[in-house]
Structure formats: C-alpha cells, structure tokens
Amino acid sequence: MSDRPQLKSSPSGGSSNALLEPVKDRRRRRSSSLISHVEPETLEEENDQQMPNMNASWVDQRGAWAVHIVIIMLLKGFYNLLPGITNEWSWTLTNTTYVIGSYIMFHLVKGTPFDFNGGAYDNLTMWEQINDGVLYTPARKFLILVPIALFLVSTHYTRYDIQLFLLNFSLTTLVAVVPKLPVTHRLRITIPGLTSPAQIK
Amino acid sequence: MRQPPEVLPSSIPVPEAVLRSSSYVWYYCQRAAHAIPGMRYVVSYVRKSHQDDPYRTLFELFLIIYGIIYFFRKPRKQGEQAAPKLSEREVEALLDEWEPEPIAQQNIKLEWRAKSTPVLMGNSSAPTRVNLTRDEGRESYSDVLNCASTSFLQISSDPEFVKAAKDTIHQYGVGACGPAGFYGNQDVHSELEYNLARFFGTERAVLYGQDFCIAASVIPAFTKRGDVIVADDRVNVALQNALQLSRSTVYYYNHNDMEALEELLEQLQERELNEKLPSLPRKFIVTEGLFQNLGDIPDLPRLVELKRKYKYRLLVDETFSLGVLGANGRGIAEYYNMKRDASVDITIGSLAVALGSSGGFVLGDNVMSMHQRIGSHAYTFSAALPAFAVTTASRVLDHLEHDNSAVQKLRSLSQLMHQLFIDDSELSPYIEVTSSKESSILHFRLTDEYRSRVFHTTEESLFQELSAMHAKNLSEKYIEGCEREEKLLQRIVDMALKEHKVLLTRNTFVLKHETLPVTPSLKLCCSAKMTEDELRSACESVKSAVLACTSE
C-alpha cells in the first residue's frame, strides 16, 4: 500500500463511488475521437439551468430579430461607403461579415458572462443554450432563414460572378447553416492543435 | 444528340435524359405559373437571378427548400422520445394501482430525540443557571447549570448590554425585515461592519442575517463548475452544504493532516500542468478554525505556507473560534500570532456564538466584500439583522477591545475542564477527549475499543453505511449502531441532568444531511460567568454519569 492520500471525489461529483476521481471531461469521448457529442445534462446541471439564462433569453424577442436586419443594412451601408468597392463586392462582404459574426456569437463562444448558474452552461454555445435546447423553435427558424435569405439577396446582386457566388455559397452553408442543423446540435469537432480543451472537467 | 445550353461549361457532361425531362418540367411549370396572378414578377426575378446557370439555381433551390422544410418542423428537444400512448383504460388502471405515501412520515424510531430536547423557561437566578422543561412540559427542572450554551463569553447578558438593546429597539424598532440592499441596512449595520473589520484586522466585513447559511452563500458566490476546492474531511454540515452548492470539484484531505494536504496539492498541481486548461480555475482550501464536531484547531501557519506555495485561497470557518481563541478573542490568527489579512482570505464568523448576539459576518478584503453585496444570495435576498442585535454586537466588540478578562477567564476554565477529563485515568477506557485545550467546548466520545465491543461498529463502518445509503438516495437514514450509541450518550446527559442538575448535550447532527464521517459525541461547554468550583463540580458529576452509564 502506498501512503499517498487517496483522491476522493466531491459529494457533488455526480458519482456514487466515494473513491472515484472527479469526472474529467463532460464530453463523451473515445480515445483519439475527433467528433464527439456534449453529454446530456445531469440532474444537478439541469437544476442549475432552471435559473433564467440571461445570456440566451433575449434571442427570442422580436426586437432582437429586427436587429439582425438593421445590422445587415448598416453593414451594407458601411461597405458601400468604402472607396473602390463595387456593388458585387459590397454584398459579398456584407454576407461574409454577418455570417462570420453570427458564427462567433452563436457557435464559437461557450458559456455565459453571468454567474447565476454555477457554470452549468459552460460547455454549451449560445445556439445550444437558446430555448433551453429545444429545436425548431421560432427563434431558431428565424436565425437559420436570415443567412439563407441574405445569401439569396447577395448572390442575386453579384450577378454572373462565379467566384463570388462560390464564396457566398460556401460561407453561408458551412459557417451559417450547417452549424445550425439539428444533426450538428451539441456536436464537437476536435482539431488537434487548433481547438482548445474544454474548460469544465 | 442535343447540345447542352452554352452557359454550361462543356467539360461537364449532362445526360440527355436529364436535360429533356427537366425541359418538360420547366415548360409545364411555366405554363402553370402564368395561370397564377402576380407570378409574372416572381418568374422575372427567377429568370434574372437564374442567369442561364442551372447549377447555380440548383444550389439556391436546395437552400430554399431546406429553409422551407426547417420552417415547417414542430419544436422538439434533441433525442426526445415521444411519450408512450396509453389507452384510457390503461391510464385508469395505473391510477388505481398508485398508492400515495403520506406527506409527513412519523418516525417512531427517532421520537426519543424530540422528547429529550430541553426547552429553557424564562429568567433564572444567575446567567449560568437555567430552568427547563422536556417532553412537552412533562419533566421540569429548575436551577440547572447550563453547560450546553455556546454563548461562551456571556458579556451580552450583562444588564447594561440588555438595556442598550432595549434602547435600540425604542429608537430603531425591530428592523426593516428587508434584505440589506432593500432598506434592511441602517446606520448601525455599517458601523458594526467597520467595527468588525477593525477588530479582526481586515479591510472589510460583510454582515449576514443568519450564520448557518453564510458558508452556503459565500462559497458558491465565488466558485462554479471547474473550480477546485480542497477541504478538510471533518468540516461541519454548513460547509458540507456549501461545498456541494459550490458545484466545484472537491477533494478532501485527512483531518488536520498537513502532510496529506501537501501531497494532495502537489498531485493536483502536477495534473493541472499536464492539462493545459484554457483558463485557470479558482482554487480554495476550506477548513474550520475550531472544528464544530471535534473541537480541535488546524495548523494555520502551515496552511498559509501551503496556500502560498500552491496558490490557493484559504477559507476558514471561525464560527466557534472567534471570541474564544487568541488573547483578545480575535480567533485563530491571533492564536498563532499572525495577521488575519495576510493569512486568511475569507473568514466566516458568527455573532450568535461567543459574541452572544445574532447573525454572522464574513471578513476579507475590499473586492471580495463588494462582490458579496451583489453576488452572495444570503446577503442580497435574506432579511438583514434587527438593529438591536447589531448594536449589542458592536458593544460587545468595544468591550472586548478594552477588556479581555472574559476571554482570559474562559481560557483558564477551558483548560481546567480539559485537564479534569484528560487526567482522569478512570475514564480513559470509556471515553476519549477530541477537543483542544483552548476550546471552550469539551468534546468527548466513546473510545474506538469500547464502541466496537459494545455496538460492533467503528467510525469507518458508520461512514461506509452512511455513504451506501447516500448512494441509494435514501431520504431517511437510520443506522442501528449509531442510534444505540446516541441513546447511550443521551442516558449520560439524562443522568447528569436528573441527578446532578448539569445540562450538557449530545453533539446533535442529522444523519441525512451529513456527507462526511461523523461520530456521536458529547459536548460540555464552559462560559466566562462560571466559577471554578461550579465547573469543577459539574465535571465531576458528568464523569460519574459517564462511569455509571458506560459500565452498565
């Protein structure tokens, strides 16, 4: 017997085995698996998620929907003002900025800036937090239809240009639509050296 | 063979059949479209955006169709199973089968506890003497020496302090019944916070309305999932609740074993270096100044050394040590001649124990205190203390600053009490004293040998049984061996009360709330108002009761 102290898990570690080490990673993971799903919430996490989540609740509001349109219009106005930018490029840049911006906001940053949930949302992106994770809600429908509509409009105004079309199309599908699909809900792709490990263990 | 439209790059071969069938479809679609009013504009838009490029239109069409499909789906949760469809008869049958449990269960096995709870009645001749009844007034005792009170210093029971409390009630009423930030705090509250901070030597103090819930409020205010807490494995139930609510990863080290703590911290540090987390977790060491269940004192200098070395913050629950340890009752920091603001980061203290008032407080630096005022639930949502409890506590602090005779007297009584028990060789086969000599509560429990001989249990076996019940999520926890031991201890209490008029108490705990090892024990408290002779005779009577009951 070594006289090293045994690591005992917390009473809240979610495990009934008193001598087990605390659960290391909340994501289901096999060795060297690149694609994994976020594990379903434990009872304790669900309990902490009962507090109103101010990070995601505003997304439902109609004003927040209108802001998407306003931002797109402002972006278009801004790119129109830049010298040397043709109308085609101005639409393409508007689409690119909106799509990448919404990706950062909805799919890249995890957790909440508030301290009310004891970190129960720290493994979830904002897209996964809104509407308590229910799919096909009005807010989600709106948020997926906006980039599609923006793509149709911008591709309409970029006319013949096959390169701009390809740029717009691939950005819209890969960055705005695919991450919002039900198939990719709570899906994590690990790219060694690029993605950082999850904060919550 | 027909050539494909010129816009298509000739390098991509398109099968004849596809072209032909799509042309037909397109033709009939066009005819149908002309029949619908307003469709002209849609067709012209489509024609414009089509730009004679069918692939492009195909991509766009694909996106549009997916958008429409998504739009018409019904809301549902991911992986959610539809509820099984039951016929009305099946539902009826299920309802008939169901037998509801009574909302409140009467537990006959535990009734003796309620029957043995003393109820203090009115004023008595001296502050150390009480009149009490038990079992709903069926038993009554008068002029009993109170060795069960944790109001150790007894300063606030002096007539001048009582008068000051009454004056405050005349002037301030009994409080706004509101939380601190919602009319609950009056000028006296801020004054007491300054006084506490000055007296204990920290930057700031935060006043709470109730001492038990402070830990459960302060720790979660600073921690969340992913943070690390290293705690002593004998901390009291208030801290146990707090650790659970902290949602952090909690590790326990063996009680007061600094070697084990260091080894654990070393292991954790090693692991953290390997993990390369994106951001650093908050790390705390949690312990008590004077342990509520055992009465011993941790090695603070070593703890401070370790916390500095491994970059942890130190939280000490000083509910029972403030007013008791140190020359002026400034707690464990004064006891070890250390500065509080340089050694302990968060101190939890109680006004309801030695200081003889009500409520509690947290000592610490400015930033930590300001965060609590908006982030600590018990501070922001619970009613603040009534003004008279606050002014009483303020006056007690003033008194302690000028006159430490009560603390010194208490210390000499504590040492005498411990000496009387430790030196008695007749007792040693039956009981062991766990508390430190400085503690004004003498904690003693049955020896391991006696326990295993009479009840066939050990400390470990009790904890194992408890954790097994915990794992099964049993709400009612009942351990036969523990219960029998408690009953034996209660017999000692009863005998001391009935035959010698000395009131001591079991260390009361509720099994279902305990998540850490706990052992039944007895507590004998001294207070500064007792005379040496009084205490000496009380100790003798308790000893005789112990001997009488254990050698049965």
Poorly predicted residue ranges of chain A? 1-31
The proportion of residues forming helix of chain A, as a percent range, comes to 40-55%
Shape of chain A: globular
Q: Tell me about the biggest sheet of chain B?
A: 7 strands, mixed
Structural class of chain B: alpha/beta
**Low-confidence spans of chain B: pLDDT under 50, at least 5 residues?**
none
The proportion of strand residues of chain B reads 5-15%
- Ends distance of chain A: 29 Å
Strand order of the largest sheet of chain A: 1-3
What is the C-alpha radius of gyration of chain B, as a whole number of Å? 35 Å
The helix tally of chain B amounts to 22
CATH superfamily of the largest domain in chain B: Type I PLP-dependent aspartate aminotransferase-like (Major domain)
CATH topology of the largest domain in chain B: Aspartate Aminotransferase, domain 2
Q: What's the average pLDDT of chain B? A: 89
Query: How many structural units, i.e. domains of chain B?
Result: 2
The termini of chain B sit apart by 114 Å
The order of strands across the largest sheet of chain B is: 5-11-10-9-8-6-7
Shape of chain B: elongated
**DSSP strand tally of chain B:** 16
Entry keywords:
heterodimer; A: 201 residues; mainly alpha; 6 helices; disordered N terminus; B: 552 residues; Aspartate Aminotransferase, domain 1; 2 domains; four-stranded mixed sheet
Overall description:
With 201 residues, chain A is mainly alpha-helical. Chain A has a domain at 69-189. Chain A contains six helices and three strands, in the order E-H-H-H-H-E-H-H-E. Chain A has helices at residues 43-48, 62-81, 87-108, 126-129, 138-157, 162-177; strands at 35-37, 134-135, 187-189. A two-stranded antiparallel ribbon of chain A has the order 1-3. Chain B is of the alpha/beta class. Chain B folds into two domains: 110-146 and 405-551, Aspartate Aminotransferase, domain 1 (Alpha-Beta Complex); 158-402, Aspartate Aminotransferase, domain 2 (3-Layer(aba) Sandwich). In chain B, 47% of the residues lie in helices and 13% in strands. In chain B, the strands form three sheets. A seven-stranded mixed β-sheet of chain B has the order 5-11-10-9-8-6-7, with helices on both faces. In chain B, helix 6 packs antiparallel against helix 17, helix 11 packs parallel to helix 12 and helix 18 (405-422) runs parallel beside helix 22. The longest helix of chain B is centred in the last third of the chain and has 21 residues, at 480-500. The N and C termini of chain B lie far apart (114 Å). Strand 2 of chain A pairs antiparallel with strand 1 of chain B, so a sheet runs across the interface.
